[in-house]
Amino acid sequence: MYALRKLSNEEKLKYELKKTIENEYSGLDISINNLSLGIKGFYPGRTVFNLEIDAHLSERVDVINLTNMPIKQSTVKQLREDQKKHGYKELTTMVADVLEKYYEKD
Would you say 10 and 18 are in contact if contact means Cβ atoms under 8 Å apart? Predict the structure, then answer.
């Protein structure tokens, strides 16, 4: 809480909004770029404000350790050949790319 005291009011608001949005949409990684507050209109006895939040949403990435996964030696050999063929430095990067392409296709 001490760190929040040193932040500007705008930074505090961004922090609280991000925390609220993250709680509501827990599967997304949210980065708030800009906030703008404007007056939407004046009405008898009240004023309506419009809050615009410029945010970037991205899916969180989980790291899965594959080093202890039992795989047939012949499969590992094929994976290593494909790794060289496609120019991947790390086998895990290639496997992750293949899995993402397979599961993300629409």
Answer: no
The residue-averaged pLDDT of 40-47 equals 92
The yes-or-no verdict on residue 44 having pLDDT over 90 is yes
Which residue do the tokens 């500007």 mark?
Answer: 8
Q: Hey, what amino acid is at 46?
A: R
pLDDT of residue 17: 83
Beta strands in 1-106 (DSSP E): 28-43, 46-59
Average per-residue pLDDT in the chain?
81
**Those residues with Cβ within 8 angstroms of residue 41's Cβ, 6 or more apart along the chain or in another chain:** 47, 48
Given the structure tokens 């705008």, which residue do they identify? 10
> Is 58 exposed, middle or buried (CB count within 10 Å of its CB: 0-12, 13-18, 19+)?
exposed
